[in-house]
Design a protein that fits this description.
heterodimer, A: mainly beta, B: mainly beta, 0% helix
């Protein structure tokens, strides 16, 4: 089934450790996004990429980094996790950002 | 700053009609989206409005007034499976989506 695959589904991470959340899409969408979703706050953009080889900062980029080596993959890295990064993380993609976004199933991350 | 306002929670009865409102103040406007999100799942696309007026899609309709910075999502013939959160999002002048916090809709038998 075409779409976006995120891994892992959930993770408990010790504070100070690093982690990479994986995101892969097979729709050949140019634009990809990472959001975090916290209760009562809605979706907040962490980083985005309009096309392979380019990335940009969103609303809440601190503590996160991304790369976009090819069209399909858009990993999100936490260099040194802190408890405030406990959240549900969604990867999304869109064709040129002009149409609706397709979301992955999310990664539930708990930093302890 | 940019802001999207939606009611936090609404309750409706199975078979009835419910209207979920969304007001927005953003830097530019390039379309408004409604998404449905069931608990523990990813958001899924429902509707898109870029011009004023009503867009109808089956039991769901979405309305937009750009001059008022206002939209609503209308759900008819409510079913228990419609229990979910409904997210309003506006695409701003930079073509980034600004999201509301979502409205949790509870359907009662």
């Amino acid at each position: 089934t075409a779409g976006i695959t995120q891994a892992p589904t959930s993770q408990i991470l010790a504070a100070g450790r690093s982690m990479t959340l994986r995101c892969t899409q097979d729709m050949r969408h140019n634009a990809m996004y990472w959001y975090r979703q916290d209760l009562g706050l809605g979706l907040r953009l962490i980083h985005y990429s309009n096309t392979a080889g380019t990335t940009g900062k969103g609303e809440v980029p601190d503590g996160y980094s991304v790369s976009r080596a090819n069209t399909d993959d858009f990993p999100l890295t936490l260099a040194s996790a802190v408890p405030s990064q406990t959240s549900v993380y969604f990867c999304a993609s869109s064709q040129d950002g002009l149409y609706g976004y397709t979301f992955g199933s999310g990664t539930r991350l708990t930093v302890v | 700053g940019q802001n999207i306002d939606q009611p936090t929670e609404m309750t409706a009865t199975e078979g009835a009609i419910v209207q979920i409102n969304c007001t927005y103040q953003t830097s530019g406007f390039n379309g408004l989206f409604w998404y449905q999100q069931h608990a523990g799942e990813a958001p899924t696309f429902l509707s898109y409005n870029v011009l004023d007026g009503l867009e109808e899609k089956g039991r769901f309709s979405s309305f937009l007034s750009r001059s008022k910075g206002y939209s609503y999502l209308l759900l008819k013939e409510l079913q228990m499976k419609d229990s979910a959160s409904y997210l309003c999002a506006v695409r701003d002048s930079n073509y980034q989506l600004i999201w509301g916090a979502g409205t949790k809709l509870i359907i009662k038998p």
